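Researcher: I'd like a structural prediction for the single chain below. Treat it as a standalone chain; there are no partners to consider.
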Amino acid sequence: MTDKKIPIIIDTDPGIDDAVAIGVALFHKKLDVKLLSTIAGNVSVEKTTNNALKLVEFFDKDIPVAKGANKPLCIPYEDSSHIHGESGMGGYEFPEPKKVIHPEHAVNAIRETIMNNEEKVTLVPIGPLTNIALFLTLYPECKSRIERIVLMGGSASAGNHTPTAEYNIFADPEAAKIVFASGLDITMVGLDVTSKATLTPDNVETIRDLNETGRMMYSMFQHYRGGSLKTGLKMHDLCAIAYIVNPELFKTQVCFVDVETSGTYTAGTTIVDLKNRYHREPNATVCLDIDVDAFRAWAVEQLANTR
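Model: Treating it as a single chain, here is the predicted structure.
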């Protein structure tokens, strides 16, 4: 008897490290990717949607791609193209995709996918949380059909976009606040682990020679500014996938998390109450450490299983 696959929806803003996470997820034996929903984040939603379509075609997978929100709920949109390049996935020449996007807005496509699936679905947001907040607000009746949310974002320590805020949360703090207050089972895979989860120069050389995916990723890694080829490339989004299938790689703590939505210097900061100073009910499992060597070996092994 084979183990059942975990049905997931990846909400994403590809993005070079998003591309790595998507590639691993699409080929992982434990995962069943039901939908890619896109969001404005690393680059505009038009570009992230086009990138998602390119990836699905490159990996030769029949996964629907639904286009989502083009801006945050309340604040001006601020991209991260200085990290990922103008297109979001610079460095590799993908053909223009022939696949068309899902006819529904991503928020409606998420609802449709969840309600039509026999089992509860795990949401895996690896970009700003706008689509997820809109979905939970518009369709609260779907909460009972969600297994859990495993998100890449936030930090229990320092930020990467501002001194205190991680980019995905900073990009739409109001949306993040809604998600953390949803009452759902949430795991936050933030900078405390994702900044350590790097691929070394040797890893990158190995990946290049694995297969066609490895060559594609190697080409994009030359243009990725999340770390460097000399010091190690940060695989932020891949950590969310790793947590779902290999939670033993991580050290975690259950605690109360909230999001600062205003403040001259602190907007987008995740307040992670590790010492229970606020005496609030815990609402998230927070990843605080990772077995880096085991993660690197796992990442290379998974990429070897792609095309």
